[in-house]
Write a structure and sequence with these properties.
With 80 residues, the chain is of the alpha+beta class. It contains three helices and two strands.
């Protein structure tokens, strides 16, 4: 198989994969029902992380999470 044919096949395969993900909904942004649902979803994805607060945008999209600092670093931050 010649190199140009191989390049065309690889590019076509990648383009087809990207199109399949896009057209099956893989590029849509999740709309969260509220802060509780955002916390649940975050806990599913990152079970070892602790969350202090959740902020959502007006369109119910994820904005940011406040992290809880470990007790030792929180005490040192207050002292300084």
């Amino acid at each position: 198989m010649s190199l140009p044919v191989l390049v065309v096949l690889v590019v076509f395969g990648i383009a087809l994969s990207v199109a399949a993900v896009h057209f099956t909904g893989g590029t849509t942004t999740a709309m969260l029902a509220g802060a509780d649902r955002a916390l649940q979803r975050f806990a599913e994805d990152f079970p070892d992380e602790m969350v202090a607060r959740v902020r959502l945008t007006a369109g119910r999209r994820f904005s940011s999470l406040g992290r809880r600092a470990p007790a030792s670093s929180a005490a040192s931050a207050i002292a300084s």
